[in-house]
């Protein structure tokens, strides 16, 4: 079943440089907490956890 992009949905696109170093739970937590600061905060967390790879994060919220 395919679901459309509904109001208030959050789409997170990222490289494995993030998911290899930050848990899925932490990614969702940061995106829900402050959508505008989430990419910057997630890159910071990944770097603090080793940051050995390229880290790319894009967060989109349907309003």
Protein traits:
63 residues, 3 helices, alpha+beta, 16% strand, two-stranded antiparallel sheet, elongated
Structural class: alpha+beta
Q: Give the fraction of residues assigned to helices.
A: 25-40%
What is the oligomer described by this structure? single chain
Distance between the termini: 23 Å
**Extended strand count:** 2
Folded structure, characterized:
- This protein is α+β, with helices and mostly antiparallel strands and 63 residues long.
- The protein has one domain (10-61).
- The protein is built from three helices and two strands.
- The protein has helices at residues 16-19, 24-33, 38-48, and strands at 10-14, 57-61.
- The chain has a two-stranded antiparallel sheet with strand order 1-2.
- Helix 2 runs antiparallel to helix 3 (38-48).
- The protein is elongated.
- It starts with 9 loop residues before the first strand and ends with a strand.
Structure summary:
By secondary structure, the chain is α+β, with helices and mostly antiparallel strands.
Lay out the secondary structure.
Elements: E1 10-14, H1 16-19, H2 24-33, H3 38-48, E2 57-61
Helix pairs in contact: 2-3
